Amino acid sequence: MGLTEEVVRFVSNTRYRDIPEDVRRLARGFILDGLGVILAGSTERASRILHRYIGDMGGKPEATVIGPGFMAPAAKAALANGVSGHAMDYDDTQLSTSREAVYGLLTHPTVPVLSAVLAVGEQKGISGKEMLLGYIVGVEVECRIADAINPRHYQSGFHSTATIGGLGAAMAVGKLLNLREEALARTLGIAASMASGLRENFGTMTKPLHAGRAAENGVTAAQLARRGFTAATNILEAKRGFYNAMAGGCDETKISGRLGRPYFMQDPGISIKPYPSGSLSHPAQDLILDLVKQHDLRAADIEAIEVGTNSNVPNALIYPMPKTSLEGKFSIPFCMAIGVLERKAGIAQFTDRKVQDPKVVDLMKRVKLYVDDELEALGYDQVRSRIRIRLKNGKTIEGRADVARGHPLKPMSWKELGEKFRDCARLVLTNKKAEQAIQLVSELEGMKTIQPLIRTVRGREGKAAR
Predict the structure, then answer these.
(1) Based on the domain organization, do 199 and 348 belong to the same domain?
(2) Quick one: 91 and 224 in the same domain?
(3) What CATH number does residue 102 fall under?
């Protein structure tokens, strides 16, 4: 059995009753987090531009664009919500099953799949159980495909959220549409040829466009296959197919026999972001905040901050002196400087005004990011970080962090997930609506239709992005 056949057979055969309760519990948390970052990201300028673009296009009103609350064709609603979900770079990140993979190839699994499921699910009037089923199988396929790909894919410039997110979204939508195996295989074939996204665009509006296009591609591919559109049915393993063309190969053992055994959400897991920035910065952000508070450090006390990591971190966090908030999300100097100056790293800290603040700029000049030989030798599966702070009085303060809050080894509780959701949702929803949304997600399996959830998060209180 080829890899493509194995994937589509898993998608076709998996039933809601087959999914362990632990996986469903984890999925509810990821869905709540995903809805929160979509709400918050809908207020970003990139999202507002896209909302106007989609609004001007018109088309059949099939699904809700969260934030402004208007209706659009399902594929375009998926596009808009996918962009919003990644606009703040606050969405979750898959982990890795090997030391060689770059922190799970930095695939952000929830937003492309969830955005596609919300759009088609609203169009079809699916139940909460169907939503969970589609989301879970889509994320499982997405994460396994990403985990198996040659790391060259990411290292040479592809953004796996863009390239592989669409494959997960396609399988999720195919499940909701009850496509048979042959049609699911064609769906993968179509989605694989639509896959694109380059990391040179990190720090620009085009990075969140990657997640949006992945969601849109998933919807489009499944809808075309449902209508009989043809494509290769061996796209993953073919000589001229996805893995060979995009990465020069894959490790088939990371997919074959592994789908749902256990679910990727269980092992190695998916990490929820504690900060709205590139996930490779998060252990260092956790650490700087701890050190600043523990030693009551002030910017005036600091001579220099040295941050040691593995070699893949500078390859992704590419801005030594950022000029915008989008660039700041991929800048260790900014993350360190804002942590010292404000002792926080939330939505309010990642703004153009903060990045351009003279006090922040001055402190960023004192931050150095370097490759630490010891951490490099440990591999790339974790974003291990070491910080050394040299004070003007001659004293040195040091620390090391291997994972950040939100990692499966340092997980967020449902209460903490709720706190993050409230912080995100307050940009769009009333407090009452935010609490209703949290409650509805917690009760998702009992919902005969997801319409009440859609109505609650659509953002029609007049606070949505304009």
Answers:
(1) no
(2) yes
(3) 1.10.4100.10
Q: Are residues 91 and 138 in the same domain?
A: yes
Residue 143 in this model has a pLDDT that exceeds 80: yes
Give the pLDDT of residue 101. Answer: 65
94 assigned to some structural domain: yes
pLDDT of residue 464 exceeding 50, the answer is no
Residue 109 in contact with residue 142, Cβ under 8 Å? yes
Cβ neighbours of residue 179 under 8 Å, at least 6 residues apart?
12, 187, 222, 225, 226
Question: Do 191 and 304 lie in a common domain?
Answer: no
The range of the structural domain enclosing residue 10 comes to 3-273+410-457
pLDDT digits (tens, 9 = 90+) for 252-283: 999 999 999 999 999 999 999 999 988 889 99
Longest dimension (CA), the chain: 72
Instruction: Categorise residue 157: left if φ over 0, alpha if ψ from -120 to 50, beta otherwise.
Output: left
In a domain, 462, yes or no: no
How many domains in the chain? 2
The CB density around residue 293, as the number of other CB atoms within 10 Å, is: 11
Amino acid at the residue 15: R
**Mode of pairing for the β-strands spanning 302-309 and 367-371:** parallel
Calculate mean pLDDT across residues 345-362: 95
- The answer as to whether 466 is a domain residue is no
d(CA 188, CA 230): 11
Residues 423 and 354 in one domain: no
End of a domain among 362, 383, 401? Answer: 401
The CA radius of gyration of the chain, in Å to the nearest whole number, is: 21
Residue 17 CB contacts under 8 Å (≥ 6 apart), including other chains: none
User: Each residue of 91-100: b (16+ CB within 10 Å) or e?
Assistant: bbbbbbbeee
Is residue 163 domain-resident?
yes
The rounded percent of the chain whose pLDDT value lies above 70 is 97
